[in-house]
Amino acid sequence: MPGFEVLYQAAALCLMYPDDDFRARLPLLREAAPQLREFADHAAVTPPRELAAHYVEVFEAGQEHSLYLSAWREAAPAPSEELYRAHGLETTGEEPPDFLPAVLEFAARTGTTELLVDHRDGLDQLRCGLTDFGTPYATVLEAVCATLPPAHTTP
């Protein structure tokens, strides 16, 4: 599914902890990825401390909305550092290779959606959980999931 690299890179930024760097990139992010404008607009008008506290509440307060693909029970193996290296990329060591923003950046840099497609069921579960929670982060997952083929359904 070529052509979504900019969206994946922008979504990766949206799903990282919202620091000052993130805030500085909001205008560019908003223009580069129109699918994420709703989230970018929300982030732009939300006070920094409030946005950071919301991020912690949503993603770090428990496993319910985990950004780690290995937290979602799937048949596909989680990505490894070796996979990143095989594509000429290195992980920073700050987060494991199954951290969704890292996987999105991998897709953006390599042009391959294989990891996202392999973990589509987990991404859908996360998207639904974020939607039910009522967080603007749900729109980021909606945009990413909209680029992928439908999830496999088992009879």
UniProtKB/TrEMBL annotation:
Taxonomy of the source species: Bacteria, Bacillati, Actinomycetota, Actinomycetes, Kitasatosporales
GO function terms (MF aspect): metallochaperone activity; unfolded protein binding
Name of the protein: Nitrate reductase delta subunit
Record's keyword annotation contains Nucleus: no
Entries under InterPro entries matching the protein: DMSO/NO3_reduct_chaperone, NO3_reductase_chaperone_NarJ, TorD-like_sf
Assigned keywords, A-Z: Nitrate assimilation
PANTHER family in the cross-refs: NITRATE REDUCTASE MOLYBDENUM COFACTOR ASSEMBLY CHAPERONE, NITRATE REDUCTASE MOLYBDENUM COFACTOR ASSEMBLY CHAPERONE NARJ
Keyword field contains Membrane: no
A Pfam family assignment: Nitrate_red_del
GO BP, one annotated term: chaperone-mediated protein complex assembly
